[in-house]
Amino acid sequence: MASQTDSNPATSATRNRPPTRSAQKPMTATRTGAVFRFAPSPNGELHLGHAYSALLNQQMAASAGGALLLRIEDIDTTRCTPQFEAAIYRDLEWLRVRWQGPVRRQSEHFAEYGHLLDRLIADELVYPAFMSRGEARAWIAETEAGGRAWPRDPDGVPLYPGLDKTLAPRERSRRIAEGRAFAWRLDMRRAIAAAGAPLFWTEYPDSSMDGARQVRAQPELWGDVVLARREVATSYHLSVVADDALQGITHVVRGLDLFEATGIHRLLQQLLGLPEPSYFHHRLITGPDGRKLSKSLGDTGLAALREAGRTAQDIRVMVGLASDP
């Protein structure tokens, strides 16, 4: 754990964690057998892409004689709502998706993620980054205007400049004490060095889970990713590896859009001593224009399809998991 002193930036991270009803330290679950999970975010209505992932997870869990768990990924407490969460349960009930055990809500476990963040702070593998998105964009634009191409991550987003890494500890502490906004970013070079040997993950080619291959992780493609913010002591990357360990997940089945991000997750698992699940990144369900379905773009939700007279069997046919009767 990081030393909780005024000279240590970790102090402010602890002070700014949201309240939680679960303050126990992370530990690996003792559940045996194959364990899968479906992990939606209640920030909009579920669409056909979510239906495919939920049904596929259930199908693969049944095939493996394992369990399916449900996780609500609601760390974004400003966009996630109880109404959308209730809608998730209605949609899954309609699809006849069944899960075991209690639902895990990420918003109830900020303290657990904070313990992991503290370990990374103590190991000096993260640093407080103070540049706003606008400041980072301006700096990168100026750099590129000078004729130097700036690297992008697999999603096409420019990598964070990382100028904050040169700040002295005293200056970092002063800025935090003044209430400056910041994010805890992974120092990717130091993290990769700390991991030691190259990392790999086990990837299944299809839902039969036969013929697994080893994929080399390339976390460096993402640069210094955000692991937590001043106001929220976690991120998707940190909480997902923590939850997979805490829930004893052995098989992660999710969309192909998260394939490259698995490199970040393998690195965090290695740094934090967390177990490594196997992965299958399934095809994405696309709209008529060929793009991935999205809540933010208002693609037709399952509730609307249900109200239009579609049945659960219709949905299975539409996503390619059943034939027309």
Read across the widest sheet, the strand sequence of neighbours is 1-2-3
The named CATH superfamily:
HUPs
CATH architecture call: 3-Layer(aba) Sandwich
Oligomer: single chain
Low-confidence stretches: 1-26
Strand percent estimate: 5-15%
Mean pLDDT: 89
Tell me the overall shape. globular
End-to-end C-alpha gap: 58 Å
Extended strand count = 10
Largest β sheet strand count, sense and barrel closure: 3 strands, parallel
**CATH class descriptor name:** Alpha Beta
Share of helix among residues?
A: 25-40%
Total of DSSP H or I helical runs spanning 4+ residues: 11
- How many distinct domains? 1
Label the structural class: alpha/beta
The CATH topology name reads Rossmann fold
* Element order: H for helix, E for strand: HEHEHEHEHHEHEEEHEHEHH
Q: How is this structure best described in words?
A:
With 325 residues, the chain is α/β, with parallel strands linked by helices. It has one domain (10-318): Rossmann fold (3-Layer(aba) Sandwich). It is built from eleven helices and ten strands. It has helices spanning 10-15, 48-63, 82-95, 110-122, 133-145, 169-177, 188-195, 236-246, 262-272, 302-307, 312-318; strands at residues 35-38, 67-72, 104-105, 126-129, 183-186, 200-203, 213-216, 226-229, 251-255, 278-282. The strands form four sheets. A three-stranded parallel β-sheet has the order 1-2-3. A three-stranded antiparallel β-sheet has the order 4-5-8. A two-stranded antiparallel sheet has the order 6-7. Strand 9 (251-255), helix 9 (262-272) and strand 10 (278-282) form a beta-alpha-beta unit. The longest helix is centred in the N-terminal third of the chain and has 16 residues, at 48-63. The termini are far apart. Mean pLDDT is 89; it is low at 1-26.
